[in-house]
Design goal:
The complex is a heterodimer. Chain A is mainly β. Chain A is 0% helix and 56% strand. The chains are: A mainly beta, B mainly beta.
């Protein structure tokens, strides 16, 4: 079956580094997305990985291992505004559809 | 550019009522999507469209209908509302197909059915 798993909640300290993991089992694979969603708001795009390896974008980096069905999002120099849910998503039954994880709620403490 | 806009922002429906959720995008995207998001759950695809005049079912289409008469507009119709349809509804659009292109989301419609 198709499934995307992520931890439900994580807590980290302002200024620290946190890694949010995502494992996936999907029928197709075109790549893996990470989105950020602040409470009460819409998801916004963070990253898209197609190839294995790490892609860095400022304070945020995303890693993909296709052979292991595994990805992570790395957030550095955490700021209070990074408190949000982080959703990973990958291809579903067709290349028009994404399967979404339930999201990881990240709580940042001062 | 306004991006993706949705109306209304909030709505309370009684069981059995019907309503249409409006969605408009001004980015000239061919691909549009309707999702629902329940607390603690991932986004579930209700319907999607790959262009004007073409729509198809997603994972959870029962109880909903859509139309796509123009590139810009993709309304979602709820017929005979049920409490199970209480959710947050997001419309999204993308330049390329859903599994390979960034999706842009509207602000959402918070629907309660009582």
């Amino acid at each position: 079956g198709q499934n995307i798993d992520q931890p439900t909640e994580m807590t980290a300290t302002e200024g620290a580094i946190v890694q949010i993991n995502c494992t996936y089992q999907t029928s197709g694979f075109n790549g893996l997305f990470w989105y950020q969603q602040h409470a009460g708001e819409a998801p916004t795009f963070l990253s898209y990985n197609v190839l294995d390896g790490l892609e860095e974008k400022g304070r945020f980096s995303s890693f993909l291992s296709r052979s292991k069905g595994y990805s992570y999002l790395l957030l550095k120099e955490l700021q209070m505004k990074d408190s949000a849910s982080y959703l990973c998503a990958s291809e579903g039954d067709s290349n028009y559809q994404l399967i979404w994880g339930a999201g990881t709620k990240l709580i940042i403490k001062p | 550019n306004a991006g993706v806009t949705q109306t209304p922002k909030f709505r309370i429906l009684k069981i059995g009522q019907s309503m249409t959720l409006q969605c408009t995008q001004d980015m000239n995207h061919n691909y549009m999507y309707w999702y629902r998001q329940d607390p603690g759950m991932g986004l579930k695809l209700i319907y999607y469209s790959v262009g004007a005049g073409i729509t198809d079912k997603g994972e959870v289409p029962n109880g909903y209908n859509v139309s796509r008469s123009t590139t810009e507009d993709f309304p979602l119709r709820l017929e005979l509302a049920a409490p199970s349809q209480t959710s947050v509804y997001f419309c999204a659009s993308s330049y390329s197909a859903g599994s390979s292109g960034e999706q842009y989301f509207g602000p959402g419609t918070r629907l309660t059915v009582t």
